[in-house]
Amino acid sequence: MLERMFSDFGVQPILLLAQIVNFLILFLVLRKFLYPPIFKVLEARKNGVLKSLENEDKIEQRLLAIENEVTQRLSVASKEANKIIDTASNTADEIIAKAHQKGQSDIELMLEQAQYTISQQQEDMKKEMSTKYAQLVIVGVEKITNKVLGADDHKRIIRQQLKDLDNNL
Amino acid sequence: MRMTEPQTSNSDIVALPSEYSISAPEVIFQMGFFPVTNSLITSLLFTFYLSIIAIFVSNKMSMVPGKVQALFEIFFEYIFNMTEKMAAKNVYSYFPWLMTFVLFILVANLSALLPGFASIGLYKTLEGEADQVFIPLFRSINSDLNMTLALALISVFITHFFAIRSLGIVGYLKKWFSFKMFGISLFVGLLELIAEFTKIISLSFRLFGNIMAGKILLKTAKSFFPFIIPLPFYFLEVMVAFIQSAVFMMLTLVFMVILSKKEED
Fold this sequence. Notes:
Oligomer: heterodimer
Strand content of chain B: 5-15%
Low-confidence stretches of chain A: none
Strand order of the largest sheet of chain B: 1-4-5
């Protein structure tokens, strides 16, 4: 039955063998020439990808280290900046205090000078007023008495009037 | 030899003399006792051009692939990964065989659909026949049982070869001959041994049947109307070409993995 079937389908041992040999030749050629270079290229590409991934890890680690360093440096810089600000603030306070003190003393000085000037002017005015007043009193007395007063009278009257004026002022 | 129109009528198929059955390859010429058939010429041609392409590709491989190389690499990697998933450490032993099966069967199946494949041939006067008969010079190689049987025999042979290599001769024989469970295992082993022969029949006739059926289907469709009508069937045959090559490869891979697996006590 098998023989009949093979005969119907044209199966012949010699043709079967020829096809087997034919396929084996193709297999050997492909195994020799096609597969090794493809494996080589794929392997190289795979290694390249793995290397890239390794590099990526290294870069990530380096990035992390740099980020930490940046954070640390920022923290140190921040502390230093705060220190500088504190120092500047203290210095500024000191300067302000000094300026304040100086201003105060200047004001006091100016005030003293002004008071002195005022009292001087007061004195001058007082003298002037006394002189004018004495002259007015002498003129008044001369007119009342119709007599010209001498130098001693002048002195006496002026002293008396100035004494009264001092008491009134 | 001369160019002819494809045979387009059913009568052409049935008109072939009994010496030339449609399922058997046609003899083109005889070299002594050796009959050179059209399927043998075709398979030699495929071997030749696949070898040339392989040598050409091996010299042109680059790290930055072009479109063709990229496409081939995707195909190559897909089959390699699938083999690796199933065969693990044996992948480098199995893969060249599986890839050769796929390439050879796929190229053969697809090439058979090219125009001119069944229409270039010669007219021959056969013994006892008055009229000349058209004999195509090329034939879809998987529509020749010699080819599919050869592929199946190689597949089963290498499956057993790898099983012996990975289990050792004792481990391999234990798969078939075991006296555990009062000899029931021996009986099961014998059944499995018979099943090994059915693998040859199953692999060869599956591929042969599908391609032969496709060939007849296309011929029948062309006999109705040679334009447009055969087109859907051509698409179907393209699918069949891919599916059959994948099925052959997958079955071989599965058989290899199962047979190389150590029998659990």
